[in-house]
Amino acid sequence: MRKPLLALAAGLLLAGSLSAASAADKLKVGFIYLGPIGDLGWTYQHELARQALVKELGDKIETTYLENVPEGPDAERAIEQLVRAGNKLIFTTSFGYMDPTLKVAKKYPNVHFEHATGYKRDKNMSTYSSKWYQGRYIQGLIAAKMSKSGVLGYIGSFPIPEVVSGINATMIAAQTINPNIKVKIIWANTWFDPGKEADAAKALIDQGADVIMQHTDSPAAMQIASERGKLAFGQDSEMIKFGPKTQLTSILDTWGPYYIERVKAELDGTWKSEDTWGGLDSHMFAMAPYTNMPDDVKKIAEDAQAAITAGTLHPFKCPVVGQDGKEIECKGGANLADGQILGMNFYVKGIDDKLPGK
Amino acid sequence: MELVEAIILSVLAASTPLLIAATGELVTERSGVLNLGVEGMMIVGAACGFGGAWLTGSIFIGALFGIVAGILMSLIFALMALGLAVNQVATGLALTIFGVGLSGLIGAGFVGERISPAAHLTIPGLTEIPLIGHVLFGEDGFVYFSIALIIGAWWFLYRTRAGLILRACGDNHVSAHALGYPVLRIRTFAVMFGGACAGLAGAYLPLAYTPFFIPGMTAGRGWIALALVVFASWRPGRLVVGAYLFGAVTILQLHAQGFGVGIPSQFMSALPYLATVIVLVLLSRARTGGSTAPAALGTVFVPDR
Amino acid sequence: MQLVLEKRTERSNTIALVSPLIAIGLTIVTMTILFAILGKNPLLALQAYFVAPLTDGYSLQEIAVKATPLVMIAIGLSLCYLANAWNIGAEGQFLIGAVAGSWIAVKTQGTDAGAWVLPVMLVLAAAAGALYALIPAICKVKFGASEILTSLMLVYVADLLLDYLVRGPWRDPNGFNFPTTADFDPVATVPVLIEGGRLHLGSIIALLVVAAAAILLGRTIKGFEIRVVGAAPRAARFGGFNANQLIILTFAVSGALAGLAGIIEVAGPVGHLQPGISPGYGFTAIIVAFLGRLNPVGILIAGLFLALTFIGGEQAQIAMKIPLDVTKVFQGILLFYVLACDSLILYRFKLVFPNRQVARGAG
Q1: Interchain contact, C270 vs A72, CB within 8 Å
Q2: Which of A38, A198, A227 lies at the smallest CB-CB distance from B215?
Q3: CA distances from residue C270 to A159, A186, C186 in whole angstroms, order as listed
Q4: How many A×B Cβ pairs under 8 Å?
Q5: What is the sign of the dihedral through the CA atoms of C352, C356, C359 and C363?
Q6: Bridge partners (DSSP) listed for residue A73
Q7: d(C-alpha B59, C-alpha B53), whole Å
Q8: pLDDT tens-digit profile of A94-105?
């Protein structure tokens, strides 16, 4: 009994080393994921992009990922493990990997790194992120049109600039349709707890909100809105399956084109450190089809999308007025400067709530 | 729907998985066994429960899958902690690590799928009564079952001879053994009951709460169930109060935010835990004669022969 | 057929040595089957888990870095558990230590504060961890409130406090509002031992802690008291030992060690305070304490071994594309086997074929 098993194992070992040898001349590309690949949200979208990458360039590259890597002391090791396994281009896909990525980048100057949503760069470390607030602006228009109660419900994860700028863009847009529109904001203090996200959605609906927006990752809120016959927007991924009569649209993280472009650059030897903050024009994210709304609303949304893509409409066009009624200093000419949006730490006029930590 | 009624409905839904899991753990602990693996059993129950319902299209069969999965997990615990006299704290923690991994493997097959959630009761004429109609006559089956379960557990523990024997095992396994009761067998059944409840509580999440499966979706509810048992000082009546209180604080802090109450949300999130500590201290203080924990809780028992 | 345990008249030292080997053997057999089912080459997989991380200096350093907080916390917990005091809130004490130490680091940031900063951080973190651990200990001694529950509840409170601080008052002013403090100054950082690596002074401190615990338990009256109170509470009462005092003491010591581990992790491998500094160290350390049989040297070995499975799990994910969930299942199975085999030290396993209805007579 034992001998055949050993022989089998030896055979497998041989086969394994053979396939490893043939893969040696391919470019190795590594990914660090925050969640499980099946989270249906943030990590899932990165994983879909990796699969798109493999589909496009699979004959030239070999990809590896580490999932569920916490943003603490383990991250640096995980990244370095990928380097030591021979990966030459590594995507670290969460804000919390910023310092670990930088540390490893300094140690391995010949390896290239791509860090999502951060702001620290180096000769061999790029950053990339999306101007999601553009999508939020479109959602704000739709929401104001579709809301009968005039109250929007917003589930936030954490009050970081990415989320705050999304809330502001939503309200700026909504006020152009209905100056008296209200938004109720609940911070779930988690990116990911379907039960809690569902509870938050219920609370918002019970308090009179009839359009639910979320900046957390699971489809729980969509599904609650669907159960209650309300409307909602998806987040990160296509969530229409969870609310066929509910989803108005969804901001889809479409990292695929970016990943393919960067890997191609690496293959050509033209990769260099860059800061990519892409919007609708550069396809860093996409809007899911506009559904469950009348044609006139759909047209407003499509027009806004076209204008933003063309660069003729900017959600943070000056003057932007803060909660206290004072104008925000306009550092970017006609619009708020990118730095002001990336570090956004105030609510605009019309939001009754108080920003946590202020 | 009125706001008060809506809040009560949300609280009931949020409390139900806690109540079910905690009822199981209460009976387990009353027999003298501390199983810290509730979270692990719950998440496997969630994965199997969803899988069952997705494959068969039946919520009921899904719930059964969850129960069976929970029982199988608890049998690993029983084999280790009762059969082999291994430390219960360590075994329970190991069971949770194992369960989290196992549920991920099981769940990989149906990530992104959805089912239609458990139906809610409707009795024409009754469900429409304002304020109490939906609360009393419009819940899903799990909610009613959880209440029946805790009443059943109370009746069993305090009104039946078997319950008396089970409690005796928890208070003094040496005497119980000397009286001729099969301590280990009784404890095994108690552990299995705990597993069944944890599995069902886990299954409740993808079957009724959010009808899809995502790895890690129990998000610490198993640990809260454990805390509730101690909070309730091992009494079924107090367990009901505790579970609904905990659910209420969770839901109310969300509502307070919606109304724009300007307290740091971290503080509000910390409230249930702080409240538990304070209530526990007050309860322990008011009590005379020390703790009401089952005296043999968590200790190893190996019958002499 | 029934499995029956029979108490050995004295603990078997042979089995004490052999049992981990049996456990590892059983794990390898089980995992070989599991890998085969998953269609992965078992030999390569096991090599990635157990052998690859031991073959180069980098991985060895990483194992030591990962094991450092686990060992430090587990040593403190073992003292508690030996004295029958159930501290399962080490995670919270770890976080509070990290917060308290970081306070100095944040307040001295950018000043010309000298070499005193790091030592003060360490001391303050240990003190804060001890004080935080004293809350459940005092609630237990004064009011009889279960320390298992109170210490566990306080974990969440500590976590949320840290969260509040780094999102509010201590947030890095140049950090685009992201929830983290600025990077600590060099004087507030735990020095690295080998240039270019991550092995840091904390690992030496952990070794000292192991040695100190071994001396405490083996050579001192206090250590004897701790063991007697835990093993034979009645005898201890006759001996005039004060169990309550020992609960306070062991909780304080374990809180201090957890707090120290917290600040070392923050001022070492992480370099700043942020949410998520602990991937559950406080809970994993409970398992380490039991795997190490509540013995200081055993804990050291157990900590290193568990760290090996984490590093190996990553290498298996990279080299073999084995999902992380398999690593968790693998860790669970390994823990089951190790714990079960340890049971052999105290008991003999016997299979009994039931022909007996006698024993139930008195029921």
Answers
A1: yes
A2: A38
A3: 23, 31, 13
A4: 109
A5: positive
A6: none
A7: 5
A8: 988 998 999 999
Task: Tell me whether residue C23 is in a domain.
Answer: no
Structural domain that includes position C82: 65-306
Are B85 and C347 an interchain contact pair (Cβ–Cβ within 8 Å)? yes
Q: Find out whether B94 and C335 touch, Cβ atoms under 8 Å.
A: yes
Q: For residues B220 and B38, what is the distance between their CA atoms, to the nearest angstrom?
A: 10
Chain A residues within 8 A of C281 when measuring between CB atoms: none
Q: Report how many Cβ contacts below 8 Å link chain A to chain C.
A: 101
Contact A99 C271 (CB under 8 A): yes
DSSP reduced 3-state for B64:
helix
Angle at C19 between CA C16 and CA C25, to 5 degrees: 160
Q: How close does chain A come to B208, measured CA to CA in Å?
A: 11
Which residues 6+ apart lie within 8 Å of A216 measured at CB? A155, A156, A157, A188, A190, A191, A192, A197, A235
DSSP string, A35-86: S-TTSSSHHHHHHHHHHHHHHHHTTTEEEEEE-S--SSTHHHHHHHHHHHTT
| pLDDT tens digits for range A7-26 | 444 444 444 444 444 455 79
Comparing CB atoms, the residue among B178, B270, B287 nearest residue C156 is B270
Burial (CB < 10 A; 0-12, 13-18, 19+), residue A186, is buried
Say if A96 is an interface residue toward chain C (CB within 8 Å): yes
The CA distance from A335 to the nearest CA of chain C, in Å, is: 19
User: Which amino acid belongs to residue C219?
Assistant: R
Within a domain: C53? no
Query: Taking CB atoms and an 8 Å limit, are C276 and A12 in contact across chains?
Result: no
Query: How far apart are the C-alpha atoms of B174 and B172, rounded to whole Å?
Result: 5
How confident is residue B287, by pLDDT bands cut at 50, 70 and 90? low
Give the three-state DSSP class for C5. strand
A159 and C167 in contact by Cβ < 8 A? yes
Looking at the partner chain, which of B219, B254, B262 has a beta carbon nearest the beta carbon of A200? B254
Give the total number of structural domains in chain C.
1
**Partner-chain contact C276 A357, CB within 8 Å:** no
Q: CB–CB of A219 and B111 under 8 A?
A: no
What ipTM goes with this model? 0.87
Q: Is residue C232 part of a domain?
A: yes
> In Å, how far is B22's CA from the nearest CA of chain A?
17
Query: Whole-angstrom Cα distance, residue C243 to residue B296?
Result: 18
In a domain, C36, yes or no: no
C270 contacts in A (CB within 8 Å)? Answer: 72-73, 99
Query: For B176-211, what is each residue's pLDDT tens digit?
Result: 998 989 999 999 999 999 999 999 999 999 999 988
Neighbours of B300 (CB within 10 A): 18
Strands A27-32 and A61-66: parallel
How confident is the prediction along chain A (358 residues), in pLDDT tens digits per residue?
344 444 444 444 444 444 444 455 799 999 999 988 888 889 999 999 999 999 999 899 999 999 889 888 889 999 999 999 999 999 999 988 998 999 999 999 999 999 998 888 999 999 999 999 999 999 999 999 999 999 999 999 888 888 999 999 999 999 999 999 999 999 887 877 888 999 999 999 999 999 999 998 888 999 999 999 999 999 988 999 999 999 999 999 999 999 999 999 999 999 999 999 999 998 899 999 999 999 999 999 999 999 999 999 999 999 999 998 999 999 988 999 988 998 888 999 999 888 876 6
> Which residues in chain B have Cβ-Cβ distances shorter than 8 Å to C340?
80, 84, 86
Q: Does A99 touch chain C (CB under 8 A)?
A: yes
Chains touching chain A, criterion 3+ CB pairs below 8 Å:
B, C
Q: What pTM does this model have?
A: 0.87
| Cα–Cα distance for residue pair C243/C133, rounded to 1 Å | 17
Q: Considering Cα of A338, then A340, then A345, then A346, what sign does the dihedral take?
A: negative
The reply to whether residue B258 touches residue A186, judged by beta carbons under 8 angstroms, is yes
